[in-house]
């Protein structure tokens, strides 16, 4: 019997079972649930446990191969899902085993870390967030989903939405920075982009929000370290971002490696069941992070793997990623009644429902379409978008004397630095199926731009991260022969991402020495930074004429950055994570508390105030900061009333004038401060932004609408309510500058 007739049979069985039920299911979800139930009735315990087990293929970058034993596991019905396997042929070969050689013919899910593009690689997520362009972010995920599904995938381990305030942590590159409100908007946009309008579409895949929860707050920024925070911080800052993904309909959730208040997420019943399932009404499935059930033993909350398995499934985990704990221990746990078969059935049901949502039971090969694979990978329109997105993500940090854009009179340009011509460093961590050879480096982008009309010189000057200064002299002589120097500095791709925490976040190796020597030539120099985290670069900031933060821009990085350097695109990005002056200021973020001894800004080092002896409190570059080749003036802030009822709309307007010499986009930001709260409130909280184009010389009136309910917060008793009282409302170009007005809520 082929799989189609088997599915038809299963359909008939479920039809009779459903028609026998008193309450015939009305909506699609419940019909999927009923179908899943009817399959579960046919399953052995071992087959059920198979659905709860996810294994990696033995994928390698040179081509997909798989360890024999995983093929056997699929064949034996012991693996319900596979990750790190893609390309139509490969996926098809594995799916065939599941569908044609197992007793119940249940199709596999195929997961992969599609984090910032699949084949066409976009800027790292932190860079994308600096565009503040929700449409572009959603579109990038749509493209990523289109490419990934064209290569057989139906599940991505994204979006990663972990709020992070510590740039020592390497995984800040994967998130949207330090702000809860902006992070929540971005989380929802990413889920919509991946899942599309309907999961049944062959170019939609299941999204998986991760890492639940608070993985972005490890102590000291050290990867996998303990997380310990107040309940208030957890609820107010960290949890809402995951909730935004759940509210946007995310199909799956991944647990985090860390503990929260002593309980690892993977065995945290409060987190996974009480909060996520019961309070937030999440109805998808929960997968662990890579062998995080096994790690419960190292955490010291389980004596052995069997106990780890029972803790995690009883806490609410549905699927074991790579740990084999469910495979090896669940059957015995059921026998010894430490885990009920009911619990297992519920987990299986959630996973089968996900497979129904994708339409895999109707067509298990729906993502195995050779034609799509040929036509939808790295399409020209995807590359054009990637180029534009790389440019949009750039943040101009400094531009004295209008050093940028590069003057069209420059006859010779030198492109110097260890990152000037390194293809693999354009990809960044988690670059899925992206290939270094497809990446455009900065040097190549500049050459593409000038098309031979300008003499281009290039040299490395030094390596990214060693002590060798022997090439600096030669780089200086190259700089001397140029009219303009572009200096490409920063981190290599493996210096951010997973397991890449740093205690020193300044420029690695001897790059600062190189910069000093090149800048000392007196040539106009623009530094282009490539990095996966905020860096501490106070000296570079004081000596470099211009600094452009390009993050790690992906496949089209070089072309996108060249568009900005030559002024074809006016930079408009703004930071979503604070740049500290030095690591000693960390954690440093804009929405901090006032304290009982705030500084007087006129006397930043005054004794017995909340400050340091050796550095100001202010960051090097604040949240929301970024320059343009034009300038904007802010004036005439107005609100519709000064007193609001508790269910009112606050309408604020402000005039933005382009006072410079070219058209430009500005990200206008609105912040609120609750002056007297039931508990202490932050000095500022982002509550809205508008990204607008203002033509040279023109003025645009920007309007914000905020409902007073958005001013609610967790009170002392943890009730989420709105206060009466006075508020300040700021509108400005970043979190440190702007206009202010006041209003009251009655
Ligand atoms: C990471 C996850 C990732 C998983 C599978 C883990 O090490 O923490 O983010 O999805 O591996 O690749």
How would you characterize the overall build of this protein?
The chain has 746 residues and is an alpha/beta fold. Among the domains are: 1-42, no CATH class; 391-585, Glycoside hydrolase family 3 C-terminal domain (Rossmann fold), CATH 3.40.50.1700; 632-745, Immunoglobulin-like (Sandwich). The chain contains 21 helices and 26 strands. A six-stranded mixed β-sheet has the order 11-16-15-14-12-13, with helices on both faces. Strands 4-3-2-1-10 form a five-stranded parallel β-sheet. A five-stranded mixed β-sheet has the order 18-26-25-20-21, with no helix packed on it. It is globular and about 75 Å long. The structure holds beta-D-glucopyranose (BGC). The site of beta-D-glucopyranose (BGC) has 6 residues, from loops.
Topology:
Blueprint: H1 3-20, H2 28-42, H3 45-51, E1 53-56, H4 68-75, E2 81-83, H5 88-101, E3 109-112, H6 125-129, H7 134-150, E4 155-156, H8 180-195, E5 208-212, H9 231-247, E6 252-255, E7 259-260, E8 263-264, H10 269-279, E9 285-287, H11 295-299, H12 305-315, E10 320-321, H13 325-335, H14 341-358, H15 370-375, H16 380-392, E11 395-399, E12 412-416, H17 442-450, E13 455-459, H18 472-480, E14 484-490, H19 511-519, E15 525-530, H20 538-543, E16 546-549, H21 557-565, E17 632-639, E18 643-644, E19 649-658, E20 664-674, E21 685-694, E22 699-707, E23 713-714, E24 720-721, E25 725-732, E26 739-745
Parallel strand pairs: 1-2, 1-10, 2-3, 3-4, 5-6, 6-9, 12-13, 12-14, 14-15, 15-16, 18-26
Antiparallel strand pairs: 7-8, 11-16, 17-19, 19-22, 20-21, 20-25, 23-24, 25-26
Helix pairs in contact: 1-2, 2-14, 3-13, 3-14, 7-8, 8-9, 12-13, 16-21, 17-21, 18-19
Beta-D-glucopyranose is lined by residues 113, 157, 210, 289-290, 498.
